[in-house]
């Protein structure tokens, strides 16, 4: 996954109604968005949509050891 460029983020921000975002905040938004991209990449994509967390969570796998 390639990181979002400043120009791509400006376009996304404009579509979200943040076109008038002050320049001082644009770098901050880019940094936050890149952290978001890392978190999104960690989400498993190999499950069907019907596998909601409540249906696949197994509490026994989190039992205390020792």
SSE layout and pairing:
Elements: H1 6-15, H2 23-42, H3 53-56
What does this structure look like?
There is one protein chain. The protein is mainly α and 66 residues long. It has a domain at 1-45. Helix content is 52%, strand content 0%. It is built from three helices and no strands. The chain has helices at 6-15, 23-42, 53-56. The protein is elongated and about 50 Å long. The mean pLDDT is 84.
Distance between the termini: 40 Å
Question: Could you give a short account of the major beta sheet?
Answer: none
The SSE string, one letter per element, is HHH
Per DSSP, the total helix count is: 3
**What's the number of extended β-strand segments?**
0
Roughly what fraction of the amino acids lie in strands? under 5%
Shape: elongated
What ranges have pLDDT less than 50 throughout 5 or more consecutive residues? none
Radius of gyration, Cα only, in angstroms? 18 Å
Helical residue percent band: 40-55%
Class based on secondary structure composition and strand pairing: mainly alpha
User: Roughly what is the average pLDDT, rounded to an integer?
Assistant: 84
Task: Name its key features.
66 residues; mainly alpha
Could you give a quick summary of the protein structure above?
The chain has about 70 residues and is mainly α.
């Amino acid at each position: 996954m390639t990181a979002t460029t400043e120009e791509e983020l400006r376009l996304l921000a404009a579509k979200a109604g943040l076109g008038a975002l002050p320049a001082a905040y644009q770098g901050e938004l880019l940094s936050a968005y890149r952290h978001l991209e890392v978190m999104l990449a960690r989400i498993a994509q190999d499950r069907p949509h019907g596998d909601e967390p409540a249906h696949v969570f197994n509490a026994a796998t989190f039992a205390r050891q020792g």
